[in-house]
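[09:14] KT: can someone run the structure on this one? pasting the chain below
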Amino acid sequence: MIKIKTALISVFDKTGILDLAEKLASNNVEIISSGGTAKYLKENGFDVTEVSDYTASPEVFDGRVKTLHPKIHAGILARGQKDSVELKMLGAKKIDLVVVNLYPFSEEVAKNSSDEEIIEKIDIGGPAMLRAAAKNFQHTVVLCSPEQYDGLKVDSVSLEQSKEYAGYVFSQTHEYDLTIAEWLSAHNKQLITKELRYGENPHQEAKLLTDDEAPIDFLNPLQGKEISYNNVADSIASWACVSEFEEPSICIVKHTNPCGVASDEKILEAYRKAFKTDPTSAFGGVIASNIELDESTVEEMLNNQFIEVLIAPNYSTKALEMLKSKPNIRVLRSRNVPIDVHESKHLYGVGLMQSTDIYDLNEIKLDVVTNNMPKDSEKEDLIFAMKVAKHVKSNAIVLAKNKMTLGIGAGQMSRVVSTKIAFMKAEEEGLNVEDCVLASDAFFPFRDNIDLAAEKGAKHIIQPGGSVKDNEVISAANEHKLTMALTGVRHFKH
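[09:31] RB: done, structure tokens below
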């Protein structure tokens, strides 16, 4: 249990702080405070020791430096009796409670304030104190939200409760840091904001943020209607997938999932193969090419399907002339730029950031774990299928042959259901799956996928491996005289 004797309070948001100060004062807790918080508490009748008096160091640089002092951080990080001698030598007190909330950085950005104003809302001392207290949760209690004040028990904070407070701190400082990082990155890239008609649905507001280094030039379309939120999402998905391939390739995307992908020596043949995979889903899809599109390829596209967006690094003059007959098609150019090494998203106020899955499957070393070995051409198909699976929403199953997708199963809660869907799709289109390859973005949890694949005619399987039932799965492959290669790399895409 932690008993609070000394508290440090430094808050931008003063909501509930007087009630908390009253609770602390009635329990004879000494309050140390800084800047505006100290002034506010004093004006309301509370006895407060100002940080500058406690540290014997005045605030400097217009308040930029006030709590960054050894006596403050030693008091926060001290581990009870273990550090008591050093703490006394510093002339510092053990700080048992830290109450801090952060400068409103996001709000300042939203106001379209000047750079100088926004930068001054980047909190330094606040996160430092919060992180220090959270690290030392066994000895220091930390609160970073007014909603936590009522539940505080001054006489006895349990270790479990203190740990919970600490966890919340790190989630909040992470989101705060992420927001700042995104602003700085966007600022450096001089992002341009473009209003979109609506988001995923008509009742949702949406904006496009892009720059001159984006992989697709959304700001200078060659023709077409205004780009939509879903158009952008599908365009990025199709470009990312087709960029995996060195040969002339086409990727057709619907709802951010590839529904047809193919490679060939000629781009026209690549398109024909990709479209053949799933003509029904291709209707109203987004098409991306990794090389210039010529007249003959564009002509066949226009004859075959309704197109929402067409993406390529370039177009022949005749191809562009032909596209004018369909003025609503959004025709965009892709750029030869490296894929961003980080990606992020915000979900209900929670920020997520991760390194991008840029694993180069061309460099992968296949670990063949079955008695039968795939031929070189079959290995090429295995890698082709896995490149596609990398861009299909999990659980992803991709059937392929001769560098052409035959069936794609996506977005299912069960991997075996994705496998069933992939074969069903191929059967519906009359595609021959005999001796095809099957790629899975993650390991097989059970052998049922292998049994089904063999029953349907698949001959070669590629998967990451790593399941506790790998031996059972490999045994199943051997029973059916299949080949199976492990990559050791998962490509899950939620």
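[09:33] KT: thanks! The mean pLDDT is 92.
[09:34] RB: yep, looked fine to me
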